[in-house]
Amino acid sequence: MLRKLYIQNYAIIDEITIDFSSQLNIITGETGAGKSILMGALSLILGERADSSVLVNTEKKCFIEGVFAVEGKKSVLRFLEEQDLDTDAELVLRREIAVNGKSRAFINDTPATLQQLKTLASLLVDLHQQFDTLEIGDEDFQREVMDALAGNDAKLAAYKIVYQEWQQCEKQLAKLKEEKASFTREADYNQFLFDELSALDLKENELEQLEEELQLLSHSEGIKTALTKTYFELKESEQPLINHLKQLINQLQPFTEIHAELAQLTERLQSTHIELQDIAGELNRVGENVQFDDSRNEWINQRLAEGYKLVKKHSVKDTAGLLAIQAELQLKLDAVLNIDEAIQEKEQLSAGLQASASKAAAAISAARQQQAKPLEERVNALLHQVGMPNARLRVSITTRPLQSDGMDSIEFLFDANRSNRFEPIRKVASGGELSRLMLCIKSLVAQSIDLPTMIFDEIDTGISGEAAKQVGLIMKDLAASRQIICITHQPQIAGKANAHFFVYKEIRDEMVKTNIRQLDQDERITAIARMLSGEKPTAAALENAREMIMN
Questions:
Q1: Are 107 and 91 in contact, with CB atoms under 8 Å apart?
Q2: Where are the annotated coiled coils located (predicted)?
């Protein structure tokens, strides 16, 4: 609810603060006193675009702030969380218009866009002004009304789960069909690529190992010559290095017991002698195995040429890359074989979910249909009470393909003059008719829908007497569980107020200014009496006003 509205330097308002009641707030005042200016200021914090022309005093900025109580308002708190805004029990919306005409918006002191402000405001305030395009003409609201009356909350929640599962299944099915089409287009080419790689039949690291073997074959003659020469020098020359070393050891051996250090040096020479003998044997073995094989060399070159041709073709670097491509192609070819089965399974699942969703939607639709006639009758009766005896509402419910809210297209049709020509409300109803129609409808669903603060501007246009009294009674009843703010010229409506505010003009510093104050009991009686009989109320008017307030 709107707890407080603060306005500074807006049009002919210097500075005012209004503390609203949580129930029925009535605003009255002479024509031209500035009631519409109040609504204009309020509309700014509800997200309407600013006009720098409202700055009468161009030396300071315009400042409008609304303080709302939002405790328990789940939709509001959810919006604040989604937008990463503070979620206190109190919410402050603010608009500032600088002297240069630039406008800024704030939500809980955090800069916000106009769209954020407008979206949030729609959850807080339901503003009904003449000639507005009201939400009553919106199909979502009309459906919400029908569901509230039908008690469809649980049915809708269950339906939406099945519907979402069906939609997800349909997306998956469409993706599978796209994949199949893609696979089919690519299948022949993928099979060609796979066969090409399969024919090569590469082993892990094969190209890299063949490169190493090719290097060995290319240098086999030089390697064999080096091995043979080294072995020859160690064991088979005229003075083999190993034999010569043995002779040196034998020369030192007799003196090892005489000189302490010779024993250690001799042992080291013996170890070297043994190591050289082992090396000579290894050189001989390796040399015997090094052979130049022309046919092997040719085969490796051919194998590498085929391998590197595919490496270049597939833009990979090595054998592992080619094997990965081959495995991927295998998966794609397997997928072609498996996807038909997957599509068939998904189609069966989708058909089952659609059937479940259709059944749930039919139950929701039946409940809506059941409430259509009673709603028409009750609204039409209320319309008669509020001064629209010839107006009639008709609820049109037609079937359409399943959507997230069911299978129904719902539209409220209106006939203002018993012409039997029912047209969509948004096309034929006037501003005053729309406001009273909305009041009638919302009074019927108030206990079922979490309605925001409702503001009615000039709802009493074209009515008086008993019709105005009935509007006041409906508002009073509606305000028992939610806040209502109403600007009115009708004493019958003003008499129902929990808080009565009076808008007036005054001369201040030789300038006309708009101000507002809350009336006490005696002031209310006088104000209503003036609404009944003029500037100087008669005793009868005062008594009548007192009776309106007391009743």
A1: yes
A2: 159-220
The pair of three-digit structure tokens given for residue 330, joined into one six-digit string = 């295998």
CB 500 within 8 A of CB 29: no
Phi and psi at 409, nearest 5°, equal -100, 120
Q: Kindly list the strands in the beta sheet with 406-415, ordered across the sheet, starting from the edge strand earlier in the chain.
A: 392-403, 406-415, 423-424
Query: DSSP secondary-structure letter at 235?
Result: I
Query: Amino acid letter at 107?
Result: I
- Euclidean distance between CA atoms 181 and 187, whole angstroms: 10
Which tokens belong to 506?
């005054």
Give the N- to C-terminal CA distance of the chain in Å, as an integer.
26
What does residue 410 show for φ and ψ, rounded to 5 degrees?
-115, 135
3-state DSSP assignment of residue 202: coil
Q: pTM of the entire structure?
A: 0.64
CA distance 470 to 47: 32
Q: What residue spans define the domains of the chain? A: 177-338
CB 45 within 8 A of CB 116: no
Report the alpha-carbon distance of residue 146 to residue 296 in Å, rounded.
87
d(CA 174, CA 470): 57
Determine contact, residues 414/438, Cβ cutoff 8 Å.
no
Mean pLDDT by 10 residues, the chain (551 residues): 91 90 91 82 85 74 91 86 85 88 88 90 75 61 89 94 96 90 79 88 86 72 77 80 85 83 87 87 76 75 85 88 89 79 92 96 96 93 88 93 94 88 78 78 78 80 81 89 89 92 86 89 92 86 89 75
